[in-house]
Amino acid sequence: MTTETAHDAVNAENHGMSNAGYIRIAAILAAITALEVSTVYIDFGPFFLPALLIMMAVKFIMVVSYFMHLKFDNKMFSFMFYAGLILAVGVYAAFLATFKFFIQ
Amino acid sequence: MTDAVVHGHESSTGISNVKLGMWAFLGSECLLFGGLISTYMLYRGRVTGGPRPAQIFDIPFTSVSSFVLLMSSLTMVLAVSAAHKNEDRKTNLWLTVTALLGATFVGGQVYEFTAFYNEGLGFSTSLFGSSFYTLTGFHGVHVTVGIIMLMALVGIFKRSEVPGKKAEVVEMIGLYWHFVDVIWIIIFTLVYLIPV
Question: Nearest Cα to A25, choosing from A65, A57, A53?
């Protein structure tokens, strides 16, 4: 085992992924971004909005889980972050509903 | 006084205080950007007297900017990985590349703002303009702060005056940088790709 590979193995053990794994995640993120941009030029019909929102959510979760290591870290960190996120989504969904945003 | 207390890293739960504080900060930032995004969504159709979003947005240009910021998250995570392996040269290299990619993104945003202004969209032209510039401007300021932190870190590393654990310092700035990236993932979809 080379020093680099050994280091990668130690890193993967401590933080969940090797450098090759991070590059694979980045490639998937780039591919999803390309797919997102394609929705501007290709007619996806009624699937346009749900597809865009799902791709956005997948990219968000992938960066937070793998690049920010939430998937491999202490669950308390996930709680701190997702509590803020869920509170924000709830508060602002109510805010937008008050202004009849969803029934326009 | 123990080393852990001096550096303020470990709590009685075994969780790093610094990291817990950073995650709490990022959770609170969700509320800040949630407010700005919601306000934009509410006002994006109010364009009286100014250009509409579809008339001024340059999707290919913004897509390239988004790709650049996305790739800066990869270089940042490689910097964190190198810091955990105590590879100082690689850490400095990836931090510098991340800062350069961030600067490219901010440069693109300055170009975009200038182009929009020349096409008639000022800050007070319409509610769309005000909410758009406020949202993307706040994000741009966050990226700029991130670039300053990255360059400061590279400078501090060269002097070897890093307080606490070196890898943890890189990781904290990395968390901030990735957060800025995930916020752009949302802005790019909701602001640029979904038509009014």
Answer: A65
Contact B190 A64 (CB under 8 A): no
Which among B19, B34, B189 is the nearest to A91, CB-wise?
A: B34
pLDDT tens, position by position, A56-104: 999 999 999 999 999 998 899 999 999 999 999 999 999 999 998 888 6
Residues A26-50: tens digit of each pLDDT: 999 999 999 999 999 999 899 999 9
Cβ within 8 Å, pair A37-B193: yes
The half-sphere exposure of B105 on its side-chain side, counting CA atoms within 13 A, is: 32
Residue B162 phi/psi, 5-degree rounding, is -85, 120
Residue contact A101–B41, C-beta within 8 A: yes
Across the interface, whether the CB atoms of A30 and B182 are under 8 A apart is answered: no
Whether residue B7 is predicted with pLDDT greater than 70 in this model: the reply is no
Cβ–Cβ gap B85/A11 under 8 Å: yes
A-chain CB neighbours of B174 within 8 Å are: 67-68
* Cα torsion angle, B68, B74, B75, B80, sign: positive
Q: How far is CA B170 from CA A38, A95, A101, B9, B142, in A?
A: 35, 37, 41, 14, 17
Q: To 10 degrees, the CA torsion angle through B43, B65, B144, B42?
A: 10
Interface test with B, best of A80, A96, A99 (most B CBs within 10 A): A80
- Flag whether pLDDT at A12 surpasses 60: no
Give the least confident one: B45-49, B56-60, B151-155. B45-49
Q: What is the DSSP letter of B45?
A: T
Q: How many CA atoms lie within 13 A of B50 on its CB side?
A: 22
